[in-house]
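Re: Re: ligand-bound prediction request (bumping)

Still looking for help on this. To restate: I need the protein modeled with uridine-5'-diphosphate bound, output as structure tokens. Inputs repeated here so nobody has to scroll up.
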Amino acid sequence: MYDYLIVGAGLYGAVFAREAADLGKSVLVIDKRQHVGGNVYSEDIEGIQVHRYGAHIFHTNDAEVWSYVQRFSDFNRFTNSPVANYKGELYSLPFNMYTFNKMWNVVTPQEAMAIIEEQRKEIKGVPENLEEQAISLVGRDVYEKLIKGYTEKQWGRSCKDLPPFIIRRLPVRFTFDNNYFNALYQGIPVGGYTKMVENMLSGIEVRTGVDYLEDKEKWDALAERVIYTGPIDAYYNYQYGYLEYRSVRFETELLDIPNFQGNAAVNYTDRETPWTRIIEHKWFEFGKGNQEKTVISREYSSEWKPGDEPYYPVNDKKNSDLFEKYKSLSRQEEKVFFGGRLGEYKYYDMDQVIKASLEAFRNATRI
Ligand code: UDP
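Reply:
Sorry for the wait, this slipped through. Here it is.
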């Protein structure tokens, strides 16, 4: 009998497993996929670490989380600075003085602020949706060229029907600073995310390619407690209906050229280009060595259907209400605890998932 069965070998599960094992608990980790790492999984193609389930750039303001991950990997000094391509015009992201200079030819922060001040006047009162929030942060011009098309492709919904908080993830700066994140610490694990997660799981029994929900009773009988990091609605057999997600499809290509776009991420912010962005993986590691080839991934956003990989929870009212129904079922469980992006139906960044897992473990072992 194990102390813990952990369902899902992503960051949440791996951190929980590490903490439990370090306290001397016996742990079994299982995952439906053939590999560990969940969506941070990366694999080597021609010496390039390819982020198989989308770009992951580790960033955090939390010193505890930052020092925690250092135990499992060194981190390089990668700083995310995506470029936006709007119909062939290139803009710096996030929204900063380089962006405003290109958009309006302004040179000083005062000039940029004056234009935004003028343009945001159309929004009266507290912004109620993403469109109003975006215009009130950066004005209509930036909204039309850099936000509207991208967001509507990404979420498959009108900006008028999306919550304001999504766009508040992005910084707006009146300095010449292209760092996409307001985070004290940032970088990519040297050697890749998969290696980092394997290090977290070192010495812990892991079985991949097994589907917990197909034989739940059998697995449950193996452990005192179960930490379930899969979709909460799937656990309850979708009895109240499906929680909605956005899914992403990647078209990955190995190209016989050393440099495709000169940057890790280029966002295509117009409505017409079918992909949302192109990732050129080698730049996460500065194209180390003399790599003759490059690997790129075009990202296409789509509505999730049963059988697809779930990526982004759609935290609108309808889905939040539905989640609450599943949540109340889960509160009645004595043996099973739900965690992580899918278990909690939350738009978590990696550092938040690690934090949540560390806290859940502390709570679980508090006497
Ligand atoms: N966004 C945008 N234009 C961009 C990049 C992002 O309008 O070029 C908006 C979009 O609505 C997106 C949100 O900002 O959903 C948050 O972006 P972020 O990069 O944090 O999303 P993620 O990395 O989770 O895909």
